Amino acid sequence: MAFAAAVARASEAAADDKAPTDPCTKARVRIEGQPDERWSLAIASACRRLTTATDRDPTAAVHLIPSESDLLVEVTLADGRSTIRRLRETAALEPTLDALVLLPPESNELRAKGSAAARPVAAPESETLESPETAPRSAPLRTAVDFGVELGAGVVGRTAGAQGYLSVGPEFQAFVRAERWLFGLTARWDVNQWKEGAASGFEMETVGVGVGVGRRFGIGGLDLDLGLSPRLVSETQTFESDGAENTASATDVRFGGFARLGLGRSKLRFALTLDGELSPSRIRRSIALDPALPSLPSWSAGLGIAVTWREP
Hints:
alpha+beta; Double Stranded RNA Binding Domain; 2 domains; four-stranded mixed sheet; Outer membrane protein beta-barrel domain-containing protein
């Protein structure tokens, strides 16, 4: 397989002596499927380290599972306890395996005592030893859930309705990530909307806030987020009538969706954004704030660019 060949090539390139045996086989590391090619060097290096480590827990079984472009590390002990870690960066593989597989210094000291520590000790007559069946079992380790926070700000160009409203304005996002799921808030401000052929003195702005639920998909070194985002939108129009300036507003509930493409995997990165929304109450009827004004839009779509920051 291509990935296995890449691991073998990485091992040969890093070793000075002959290494006829797959380092991961010698290290008792099982690899499921084909991890992303970027993991080949890190996996080969980690396997070589485990092969030569003298303080490795001999009962620990290591299982590497690809998850899109990420890598899941599953470690299971002889007593049935297990844990899973999701890794996004290749540099995190060796430290993660060290923490899960290598024994602490005190365990090495006890093991180094050899037969002296291994000699059976007679139990006092008043003391009853528990059998393996009655001894309490260690509680299984909890599987860690990968949480994170993501904040973003950008500029969006938007078109709205058949009336041809156009606008440019800022947009803000705040999401909590749980594994591949995203939950958060969105806000935008269409500072100035204009329409060709509108009456003299016509001005319009729109403010929208919403909640978002999405799912992330890894595509090589990119992150594609797809989700739904119902929103509450407030539209304000200002116009001149009989020499006086008048202002009117309307509030609308809209159902929307969004797509966001994160460029790269660094903490601070650029993202391309696309979103659309539809007003159920305006699908079959037209609403105008004043007979002299154009009707309000029933839908809008936006395309923008944002800067996002995430932790971790």
